[in-house]
Amino acid sequence: EDQVTQSPEALRLQEGESSSLNCSYTVSGLRGLFWYRQDPGKGPEFLFTLYSAGEEKEKERLKATLTKKESFLHITAPKPEDSATYLCAASGAGSYQLTFGKGTKLSVIP
Amino acid sequence: DVKVTQSSRYLVKRTGEKVFLECVQDMDHENMFWYRQDPGLGLRLIYFSYDVKMKEKGDIPEGYSVSREKKERFSLILESASTNQTSMYLCASSSPSGTSGYEQYFGPGTRLTVT
């Protein structure tokens, strides 16, 4: 059974304090590893897809990386507007479905 | 940009009522999904559809049904609403194209309260 585990559950950072969110996955034949941002009361917003180990993608202060067992979402010099829940998901071979982690709630304090 | 819309942002229904939640996507995606999201439980898949008139059960289909009569529209039906179906309902769509990782695009969600 595919599994995605995110840590920590919650992270509190001072503005400008860089850190990383972790996503560990067990998926048969990884087709893609996805990161989403979700603001309270809204639907998840797609950020990145990573396809293979060693791949990196960047968007503003966010950089996602992928190894054979984990993905990291690095946040550089975060701002209060980066506060949100970040979700990780994975899809395996032969499936259109995504397996989601439970998310990391990030709070960036001014 | 992909756009997924849901018929209501907030909905309040009484126990036993039949409830319809509608989702429309404008990107000609083949795949559509319905999830519910609850604190501490994360996103759970209710039903999904690979094509018009096709449907597959997800992890928690009990108490729900779906309809997909047109490619762009996917409806979730609560046959007889119960208080334990109070939740945030999220619709998503994706396309199984050759270059896609099958990323899903979500609608804004419907917060359903059953009293």
Protein described:
The complex is a heterodimer of chains A (110) and B (115). Chain A is mainly β. Chain A has no helices and 11 strands. In chain A, strands 2, 4, 5, 9, 10 and 11 form a 6-stranded mixed sheet that branches. A 5-stranded antiparallel sheet of chain A has the order 1-3-8-7-6, with no helix packed on it. Chain A starts with a strand and ends with a strand. In chain B, the strands form 2 sheets. In chain B, strands 2, 4, 5, 6, 9, 10 and 11 form a 7-stranded mixed sheet that branches. Chain B has a 4-stranded antiparallel sheet with strand order 1-3-8-7, with no helix packed on it. The radius of gyration of chain B is 14 Å and the shape is globular. The interface between A and B is medium-sized, with 23 and 26 residues.
- Overall, the morphology of chain A is globular
Number of strands of chain B: 11
Helix count, DSSP H or I runs of 4 or more residues of chain B: 0
Give the termini distance of chain A in whole angstroms: 41 Å
Oligomer: heterodimer
Mean pLDDT of chain B: 93
Instruction: Quickly give the structural class of chain B.
Output: mainly beta
Spell out the key features of this protein.
heterodimer, A: 110 residues, mainly beta, B: 115 residues, 7-stranded mixed β-sheet, 4-stranded antiparallel β-sheet
Concise account of the structure shown:
The complex is a heterodimer of chains A (110) and B (115). Chain A is mainly β. Chain A is 0% helix and 56% strand.
Lay out the secondary structure.
The complex is a heterodimer of chains A (110) and B (115).
Chain A: E1 3-7, E2 10-14, E3 19-26, E4 32-38, E5 45-50, E6 56-59, E7 62-66, E8 70-75, E9 84-91, E10 99-100, E11 104-109
Parallel strand pairs in A: 2-11
Antiparallel strand pairs in A: 1-3, 3-8, 4-5, 4-9, 6-7, 7-8, 9-10, 9-11
Chain B: E1 4-6, E2 10-13, E3 19-25, E4 31-38, E5 42-49, E6 56-57, E7 64-70, E8 73-78, E9 87-94, E10 105-106, E11 110-114
Parallel strand pairs in B: 2-11
Antiparallel strand pairs in B: 1-3, 3-8, 4-5, 4-9, 5-6, 7-8, 9-10, 9-11
